[in-house]
UniProtKB/TrEMBL annotation:
Organism: Anser brachyrhynchus
Pathway noted in the entry: Amino-acid degradation; L-threonine degradation via oxydo-reductase pathway; glycine from L-threonine: step 1/2
Enzyme class: oxidoreductase
EC number(s) stated in the UniProt entry for this protein: 1.1.1.103
GO MF terms, alphabetically ordered: L-threonine 3-dehydrogenase activity
A single GO BP: L-threonine catabolic process
The protein's name in its UniProt record: L-threonine 3-dehydrogenase, mitochondrial
Swiss-Prot/TrEMBL catalytic activity: L-threonine + NAD(+) = (2S)-2-amino-3-oxobutanoate + NADH + H(+)
Amino acid sequence: MPIVKNVSRAVSQLLQSSGCGCGISIVPVRCIGVSPRQVASDASFHSVSFSESDHPRVLITGGLGQLGVGLAKLLRKRFGKNNVILSDIRKPADHVFHSGPFIYSDILDYKNLREIVVNNRITWLFHYSALLSAVGEANVPLARAVNITGLHNVLDIAAEHNLRLFVPSTIGAFGPTSPRDPTPDLCIQRPRTIYGVSKVHAELMGEYYHYRYGLDFRCLRYPGIISADSQPGGGTTDYAVQIFHDAMKTGKFQCNLKPDTRLPMMYIDDCLKATLEVMEAPAEALSMRTYNISAMSFTPEELAQEVQKHVPELQVTYNVDEVRQAIADSWPMNFDDSNARRDWGWKHDYDLPEEESRG
């Protein structure tokens, strides 16, 4: 029987873990891009399988984002410290640098990325490099390069070297014509942001490479993620990043979404667990290559009320950002993740109390 803990406990743990309050957040997940290397039309690729004693060699791109450091920590416990390489184009903090292998990697530099895969005998690749929704709308050319050209490089290298490839997608892959409550795995998507368009492109290209070349491509659509030790990343759910910082630092928080804006969310421990589980799932268990995963759905008002139980003096006001609100209004309110639960046994641990989740 799964352990179900409500968001109150999660919020309490996050506030306590931050000490000064500077480390809790909910942010939309990084998605992926794409680019122009071609694979021979007669190529044939096969997934690599691993025995108990033969751990995968892992590379994480965009590793200094919200999820990369936590994922590296989880995978190093599982597969060994030196079998998991974190990479990014930014300089890591001291504690990240000393926690395990870290290298510079630019996903737009095909040759550099290919050398890393070859020299380190990489077998699993987690591709987290991307510009998020609000930042992407502010700089479409850069988002197009990072989110689309970058993925093309990753796909071609993964196919050439028989990698098992994980690419995250998110709620941003859906649009205003998608069913919102709940949103199934397969439906009309039609996003209206470069962020969302790049995610749909990633899902379809990964599936194409799987069926065309046998690439072992796996993808999860993440909801917003509640996590510790993160800063706002330029996404539409950044309100839930900032509320924790402001609660502890100033006691005042201004939200840029309407108080009743409901979006799917997930505690980071559940997110990382799901990512590892789908990567370890037998290929024959997967009926599709891209799955929704879900845990809870809540509004800014509900989250603020929960935080105020722990920080009663917190003052919350609302100053709606029209761009972010329009994006949020086009995204799912709830995810249908029944296929993930059926195919590979996905179960979340952290949830809202039932009476709140329906409020």
